[in-house]
Amino acid sequence: MLGIELQRQGEVSLSRQIYQCLRKQMTEGHLRSGEVLPSTRELAKQLAVSRNTVYEAYEMLAAEGYTVSRQGSATRVADGLYLGNLPAAGHSVEKMRSVNEYTANFRTGQPDLRRFPRHLWLRLLRKSAEDALYEQWGYTGPDGLKALREEIAAWLFRSRGITVCPQDIFITAGATQALHLLAELLYGRGREILVEDPCHSGMLRVFQGKGFRIRPVMVDRQGLQTKGLTEGNGLCAAYVTPSHQFPLGGILPASRRVELLRYALNNDMYIIEDDYDSEFRYIGPTIAPLYSMAPERVIYVGTFSKILFPALRIGYVILPRQLHLRWRYLRTYADVQNPLFEQAALAEFLRTRRLDRHVRQMRQLYGQRRQALLQSLKELVNKSWYVWGDAAGLHLVLEFPGMNFDQNFVRHCKKQGIYITPVDVHSIQKGAHLNKLLLGYGHLAEAEIKKGILLLNEQLK
């Protein structure tokens, strides 16, 4: 009756099913305005359910305004419920392939999750939950766990040689959230942001989505070309990756750092420094952050996604004092805070120097894989190639003179089970880097690297 078919063994109650069916009949126009519904007794008999079940369904419809009734009169369909012919729902969404579906997966920014000490981490999570005070199970504020902020300050001193006050550190749900909040925070100061070209396309979209005008500055093997900086009104910030430029891998030299800082001072703007993976440096010591030269002018963004595991979703920013109040307001009305237990577990991971040991072990492992990748390229790739940015991080760039890697090449590789990204994907002004490919290798064992290069070489032919 009325097109109602009940699933008697389903998890949805019978009354809820009746309500849903009748609501659908009303919005699709099969039950029209003013039409009388069957009595509860009649419908219960037709559907072989109790009268109370139908009564509950009618109560739900009445509470939401789908029906009207007066005491002693029949229940009728309310006015204005017909939705009409709804348009088809958007464009079809292409199914994303799992990383496991690729025979050769050169995705960038992927740490080796197989080497993370999961059992230790689970013990720390359990202990942090057991030790948490009752008030910590509530809202604890937008700054982040005090113990974690103190341990991050100590970690930065050990690993980067910089002194940071824990009060200037704010915990985030990764670097991406940090950039979303910073875009909101700085938008009132201007409408234009200076960005390296090429730069991470995902981070670029954060600023574009906020409505910033993008001012690209070209990058070479040493990072941002500061000679390309031009005067202009409306600049509020520069977004840079000076310790390991993404994607080309350059390290910004001291003279360019000074020139960039001088430019920021002259234009009364901030520099957003994204230090996403410089812990893994294979030639010489870790690079000192730009922040160490001008903490009142540089906003430092760090993350634990590349060091530990991406699902952790814990990052941090170091903010100049004048930005603290506005940051707290924005974070409070974004999502208030990070989950407490993960913060507490990470604080303990840092306090016991587990992170220091893990980074040392992974740096050695990634260094070996870097060498395996370079050796495989020498042995297996017949075409001429040059490497960019292999001194640090979890990826490198290969330049193939005379070749152009467009989206057709990418699609063909995916059909052959190869995940590969051309550098031009991350270019703002297209065309300057068509002959370069990005190869992520941190998550690949040496045998996987060699197999992947063999497959890639076939496509390069």
From TrEMBL:
InterPro entries: Aminotransferase_I/II_large, HTH_trans_reg/aminotransferase, PyrdxlP-dep_Trfase, PyrdxlP-dep_Trfase_major, Tscrpt_reg_HTH_GntR, WH-like_DNA-bd_sf, WH_DNA-bd_sf. It comes from the Bacteria. CDD domains: AAT_like, WHTH_GntR. Keywords: DNA-binding, Pyridoxal phosphate, Transcription, Transcription regulation. Residues 12-80 form the HTH gntR-type domain. PANTHER family: HTH-TYPE TRANSCRIPTIONAL REGULATORY PROTEIN GABR. In the C-terminal section; belongs to the class-I pyridoxal-phosphate-dependent aminotransferase family. This is HTH-type transcriptional regulatory protein GabR.
